[in-house]
Structure formats: C-alpha cells, structure tokens
C-alpha cells in the first residue's frame, strides 16, 4: 500500500512530523514501512514549458522542430516524440540542467539543427512508466513554473507493508486514523478544488433497490451483503485535472480518465473499491448480483476472454455478466470518452467469495485484494457520497435520484469482553482500566463497564477484532512494545528432553568432521526414478520427487567439484529421505551418507597415497556403530541381493547390517557409469546408512590385566576360496576364554605358496584374569585350534 | 630363606614386565645395552634368579626352570628387535641431520568442518539451552491440519497461499515452517514446555540468489502458567545479545502471525554497519531477524490445553538467512553446491 504524505496530512490536519517521522511511527505502531520515496527527487531543473509551434525537421522524417516558451524566453528543441501538440504544456529541462539521476542536458546538433534543451517523458522524470512520448500536462499552467510545484510533486510516498490482519490500513483514511493524535476524532475529508456536493436521498432497503431508474437486485445475499449504486448523467469523460492525476501518481497509480480516476481516488482514500459502468451499455438497464452460470463468458478490462463458473460472483445486467464482482470489470460496459451516463457501484462483497473468484480466474486487482481482506460494510454511503462529489467536481453531470442501497444482510456490531486482569497476565505489566480505554477509544472502539470485564464494541472496519486476545494485542501495541521491560524472570524447566536422534546426528557429524570430511547440504528434490514420493505441484520436472537416498545427490556434488578441477573431495551429509508408507504421509528416515575421492592426505614431499578399499571398510566399521548401533557389523555384500540395486556401487561393495541381519546401508566404490568423472579423477568411494534409534551403550570399567599375556603367531596355508573371516571365526570358536585378542597381521601369496592357497598370519594373545598362563595350557589350546582349522576348513599350518 | 624362592613364577612375571618396559623405553643403542646388562648380564636380575633355582625342591624346579628360560628367550628376542629398530631410526636421523632443513613442510591432515548452517543452528540451540530449552525434532511432511489449521491458519486466509506450498497429496504438504512442532510437542506432553526445533522447511520459490525451495528455520516454544509478553521480550533480548554481541540492540514492532497474539517482528541493530545504514539493512540500520509472539489461544484449543490456565510464547527465525548475513555470503545457492572450496572456508 502506497501512502502519500500530503494526502495523510489533508485527512489529519493535526498530524505533525516529517515523512520519515511518520514512517517510523507507522512501523512502531502497526505495520512496517519498507521505503520512503521523495517524489520531487531530481526534478529541481524541470519547468513547465509551452510548445508554440511545431515544424518538420528539414533532414529527418521522424524528428520535429518545436518552438518552446520556457519562461526564460523561447528555445528551439528537436524531439522525436510523436505526440507534440501546438499550444500544449510539457515538462522541460534547459541546457545546463539535469534529469533525475544526474544526466546533464547539453546543446546538441541533431541532423544539422541545434536543440536547446529537452522535452521529457514520464519515465525520464521517474513519474511513471510511459516512455512512448513526452508527458503532456493537462490544465492551465504558468510557463516557467517549477514542475514540482505545478504538479504538486512536493510529496513523499510511504511504501507500507500492510499485514493480512489489518485491512483497515489499505486506505489513507485508516492510516491517518492510526496516526492522528485524537485517532478517529481527528480526521476530516478535505474538499476538492472546485468542490461540488452531490445531493440525493438514500433509503436503505432489502435485496432490491432502485438507482436512478436502474433496478438493482441481489440474488446471492451471502456473497454480497450490501450493494449501493448511483446514476450520474451528463458527465464529460476526459483527462483528470493535474491535482487528481498527481495524487494518483503519488501512490503509484496511472491516471486513466476523470471518472475512473475518481473511483480510484476514493479507493485509495477510503479503502472502498468502486466501479463505474457505462449506463448506455447496461441492458435492461438492470444490475443483478449473482453467481455465474456454467458456460457464461466475459471479456474483462484487460482484454482477456474468460470462462466463468458458479464459484464466481458476477454483476450482471438483464442478460449477461458485465463484471466479475469485486475483481475486475467487463470490457463491454467500460467507461470511455463517449460515455455520458454512468452507474457507480459501491458494494461490500464476502471476502471468501471474492477469494474463490479471484483464485479460480487467476486475477488479482487492487479491488479483489481489499475485498478478500474485508472492507468496512458500514462505510459504503460515505464512499458513494465522496465519489459522487468528486465526479461532479471533475467531470460535471447530475445525479439521477434515487441512490440504491440494497442491504439484505445487515452488519451487527460485535461486543468483545476484555478483562483488565487478563491484559496484565498476558502482557506481564499492570495496565489500568482507564489506560486500556484510552488506548482503544481512538481506534473507534466503544469501551464500557465499571468494575468487572470491559465491554468493547468493535468498529465495522476491524474484522480482525474477534476475541479478547485481539484486544490485548491492540492494547499492547498502542501502549508501545518498546515500553515493556526485558528483564529475565524465573521460569520452570519443561517436561521434555533432548531428542535422541538429534544427539546421535551430532555425534556422527563430529566423527566425520574429525576424519576430515566437510558437511554438505542439498535440497531433497530429485527426478522421477530417483525418488518414490511425487510432489503434486513441483517447480521443475527434474525436481518432481522427494529423494529416497542421499548418495545420488552427493555424487552430483562430486561432479560439481570435478568440473571445477577439484580432485580431492570429502563430503558428508545427514538428512531426511522419504519412503512410501502406504499412508497419506511418507515415512521419513534420517540417513547418513558420505563420498570421497582423491588423496588420503594433503600433498606432501615425502609422497602421497590415494584412498583405497580398506579405507572404505575401516570407515564403515568406525562409523556404523554410531549410526546403526553398537551391534552393527560390516560384511561383503552378497551379489544379486536386493540391496545391490539400492546404491550405485561396483561389485565388491559392503553391507552394513544389524545383529539380526537387517540391512541398514552399505558402502563401496561408486560405479563409473553412475558418475561423470574426468580421466584424471581417482575412484570415488561412498557409503549411506539409515540412522537407527538405539540407546547409548552403557560403559563399565573392566579391571586392567594383572597377569602377563602369552602371544602365539600362527601362519596358515588357506585355500583361496576360504574367506579370512571364516578362519577368524573358526579360531575364535575353538579357542578357550583366555584368547584375549586375535589379529591378522600378514596376507601373502607368492612363489613359496601353493597356487590354490594363500598364507594368512595371525597373532593370538592369551591371558587369564586370575593367574599366569603356562606354556602347556597355551600349547594345548593352540593344538585344539589347529585341529579344528584342519578339520573344518582344510587349512594347514605353514612350516608344520 | 631367600623370599624370592617362595614364588619364582611371580618374580619371573615381574622381570618380564619390567624388562619389556625398559626395552621399549630405550631410545639409543647405548641405553639398550645398559638394559641388557641390567637383566641378562652376569649380575643381571634374571641371571641371578636363575642361579637361585637350584635351591628349589625337586617338585617345582623343572617348571620354574622352563619359565625362567622362556623369559630369558623373550627378552633376548625383544632386545634384538629393538636394536634393529634403533639402528634404522639412527640411519634416518642421520639423513635428516645431514639435511638439517626444518623449514620443509610438515605432514598435514585434511581439515573437516560442519556446514555453516549447522554451525549457526548449534549456536542458536546452545544459547536457548541456557534458558532451559531442549532440542526437539518434527516431521518434514505434514498434514494440512498440522501445518495450517491447528496453527489457526485457514486455507482461505491470504497467509496460507497455496502457490507457496508444496503439496504431496490433497491433505499432505511439505511443512512451510517449523511451527507445526508446537502441535506435536503439546500433543505429546503436558506443560511446562520449553523446546526449540530446527529443521528444513519448504516454499515454492524458484532458485535465485536469495531464494531456495528448501531452507532452514528454527522454532521455539515455551508454555507454562504465568508466562507473559515480558518473558518473551526478555528471552529474545538475551538471545540477540548472545548471538550477535553485547552491544547489539533489539526492538520489537507489531506484526501478524495467525498462531501468535500479540505478535511481533524482532529487529536488531545492523551487524554489518552497526546501525548507520548499509545495503544489508536497506539503509535503515535495522535487520529483521525473527518473528515471535504469545501463543494464540486457538492453538492451545487445537491441542486440548486449557487456554485460560496456560500462556506461552513462540518464536521462529530463518537459520539460512542468519548464516548468509553472518558470513557475508552473497548467494544462497552457494550453501547447497557442496563446493569444497566454499565449505573449507567454514572448517
Ligand atoms: Zn546495515
């Protein structure tokens, strides 16, 4: 909502302060002001000039020579504008002056003729968007007068960001009411230049009324609780006087003609959308407010043919829709230069109905914006009077009585109870009854009651005041948010605890960061085929699904880095993925994924190494207990398993499983066909796991050993098809409890080893908690182990 | 009688343990030789003990002898291994000593780091923890009821614009704010409540320098008997000073959220220019950082809390936006590109 500073001052003469002062007060009191624009900015050198003679340019078809009275004499100006008229007034900048923004005007030679100054367009002056021709000023002017003065441009525009709860602030009257020292009592409607008062009687009736011979009928009383109308005959449609045009320009609206401008003026002043119909084009003539019938069509003011539907409220004449109620008028009944008789509509439409109509047609206008939020249903007569006065003042004509005021659905005042003690409880400071009344009354609220709750009657322009808490907010903001103290007072702790997943995620993130990983973020939108859950209204086709896995996104991030010639990449992501659940909402899982490629360490003069598969496995084994739980383990992925298709790894990848075999994710080398990698890139490793909820493992102290350990090395000749894990399991399974640890310290194949076998060397450490183990005991244990290996696995002891 | 001979096994174990340690601890060949002499020399601890074995009875002498010899073999082997290792080290040290160039670069490790948004999130949650707020979690996909209706937002209301919301189905949306956590928390626990919930939220905004279709927010909720607007102001003012610095000023101005009343927008003195006016604060000297207010009674009614007995406050802010301002990041897309050169700056 654009607010003119001068307009505000006209409505509230007691208002003081600069434009910036008022902007700050509106912000502190009600809604934010985004910007204060000085409309005269940069126009110091622009004056009103009169073109007295226009001649063709001797050397150019598209240029003309103008003789211009500037107040300082006569200048010759060359212009390319197509619309120069002899005798008309235009904005002019003389040689040596400047346009807004500092462009200096110089004497120039255009195709052999000197041009002394410049006639300006709206756009060049920052006054509008029109750049098609120079700006013709309507009305009479003193030649040489500063443009700012002539057009009333010594004004400021306040750009107010009105929140959805404050429809009353969508007009100057409402803003002035909020600011004026006496509130609603401090306001007045200023007379227009050459003010003519329209005189007519008004009788409020039911669903039917007559406006100057036109029958008005409301069929949809829910959609249209009130419809007022007035017929004016003999108006002369033409350009608005400069004061009216400049008011509209000050709020960023474009002047069209005096009748339409008058309706817009009242819209911005009183927040009452109005519409003018060309009475001659209304069939009947009649006005019917009803729902559109299936298949009905209308060509609207913007030139678009629209198909209507029964959700849409329309204004119809005796035969067809002539306007989309509260949204946009029809082209056929539009006011034009030929119009002499008009019917002015001034109505209150139901916000929800207008919203549906506006939404189903995809049209939003100044009018629909206001109706959707709720205007003042009791304000119609004043608005109609105001627009009638204005049209008579600027376009002439007479009122044809009577004025219609069909009001089948009367507004009833709302009374809201307000307990002063509740005000204090919610706000935390004591605010007395009198203070409360003093804050509310300037807003048009009627406050009554002595002792007990206050009875507050809410004015019709405040649909947002529905319950006690709404009034408490009014008291708080009028009293002043700044006046509340901000001291910390005692509080009780809540009953809930930290979320376990949040804690686990934090541990995992930190573990990965310790390992040299950088945390990445991505948005969870993917293409079809990559995700399971479709969006009903995606932004783009390749972002039409929700991700099922994090890894494909991270692989994309690796490609991004490769494309920037970054070869060493280590990224980790923790995020939500979405899984089909069968219900309306997807199941959400928290996943942890990482990718890495390149060198294990930053380059060093002693040499460097690339990541390999054992780094991968080690990382999986280190991180899986944090993600999946203490019982997690890592094993080679069975070829052909379901899990193999889930993640884009080459053969030879790993599965992370729970103790009972549940698959929780995996890791491996990203398949070359799953990533666009340049030739210089190394293999890309990665993993992804689902986060499980598990209790933190209980830690207990174990006494440090007090007896020595005994170590034995065992070099085994193992058939190639027998996995190391099987050998290890067999050793553990056949060893006594005194086997403290088992480690594989060497794997060897070579000339000394049979071709179908390899050598696995293990170190076994034995220790008892209560005594020193003897050689004999350990030898006996080793014998059992060796026998078991030989019998079960066809393994032999090397050199034995 | 010599006490050593009461339990020779224990004494051999002690010698083995001490010997191992001494061998490990030796850093030069000279030191190592001294250890050898100390244990295996003519007057070494082990040598002396072995000599005494003759005094033992026939029954225990063979076992003790075997144990003694095992320890002797072990220590001999360890001495040899250690000697080889020290020789190798010595050779290396000699090379390095010959080069004598300690300006050569050391061996570095990759530096990891949390995403800037995670760092900001953690910092915000830790500040609120000192005010008693625990950290919670809430779903990213919600029903319309949780995301709008229960938060006093009718779908017809301009505040709930369907254009800005991602729908999965007619009744399922991606949450447009983290505020639905209020409903989940209050449904799962009676008052008092003090919780903050950070997370990803979704808006149908196409990508540009300042918009992303998914970004991060944090919402907070405090509910108890007797919580007032003053408590809200106090909590927010404390938070602002902790996050942006002691000298940062806070101001509240009226605002509108369907789920709070009174509602306020919180502005802080611009952290970039200090209040003088710059492009970050659009010349005003103030930056909007969060919305807040007293929990609307309609929200309490939606979860079955007694709206007469309990009051509360709620707040919400954009983590992503704070990260952009704090680190001076000019384009939101940088946060989502996974570019190593960008992320390393925050490690
Ligand atoms: Zn600034």
Secondary structure topology:
The complex is a heterodimer of chains A (800) and B (347).
Chain A: E1 2-4, H1 5-11, H2 19-29, E2 33-38, E3 46-56, E4 64-69, E5 74-79, E6 89-93, E7 108-110, E8 113-115, E9 118-119, H3 147-150, E10 156-160, H4 172-179, E11 208-211, E12 214-218, E13 226-233, H5 242-250, H6 258-270, E14 274-278, E15 286-291, E16 297-299, E17 305-307, E18 313-316, E19 321-324, E20 328-329, E21 342-348, H7 351-361, H8 366-373, H9 380-395, E22 398-406, E23 414-418, H10 420-427, H11 433-440, E24 446-448, E25 454-458, H12 468-479, H13 500-514, E26 518-519, E27 525-526, E28 531-534, E29 545-547, H14 551-563, E30 569-579, E31 587-597, H15 613-627, E32 633-636, H16 642-646, E33 654-657, E34 663-669, E35 684-690, E36 710-719, H17 724-734, E37 739-748, E38 757-766, H18 775-793, E39 796-797
Helix pairs in contact in A: 1-4, 5-6, 6-9, 7-8, 10-12, 17-18
Chain B: H1 8-25, H2 29-40, H3 45-52, H4 61-99, H5 116-129, E1 134-135, E2 141-143, H6 144-147, E3 167-169, E4 172-174, H7 181-188, E5 193-202, E6 214-224, H8 229-244, E7 250-254, E8 260-269, E9 286-295, H9 297-303, E10 311-318, H10 319-327, H11 340-343
Parallel strand pairs in B: 1-5
Antiparallel strand pairs in B: 2-4, 3-4, 5-6, 6-10, 7-8, 8-9, 9-10
Helix pairs in contact in B: 1-2, 1-4, 2-4, 5-8, 5-10
Characterise this structure.
- The complex is a heterodimer of chains A (800) and B (347).
- Chain A is α+β, with helices and mostly antiparallel strands and 800 residues long.
- Chain A has 18 helices and 39 strands.
- In chain A, the strands form ten sheets. Chain A has a seven-stranded mixed sheet, sandwiched between helices. Chain A has a six-stranded mixed sheet with strand order 11-12-15-18-19-20.
- Chain A is elongated, with a radius of gyration of 42 Å.
- The mean pLDDT of chain A is 92.
- Chain B is α+β, with helices and mostly antiparallel strands and 347 residues long.
- Chain B is 40% helix and 19% strand.
- Chain B starts with 7 loop residues before the first helix and ends with a helix.
- Chains A and B meet through helix 2, helix 7, helix 10, helix 12 and helix 13 of A and helix 1, helix 4, helix 5, strand 1 and strand 2 of B.
- Zinc ion binds next to loops of chain B.
- Residues 270, 272-273, 277-278, 280-281, 285 of chain B line the site of zinc ion.
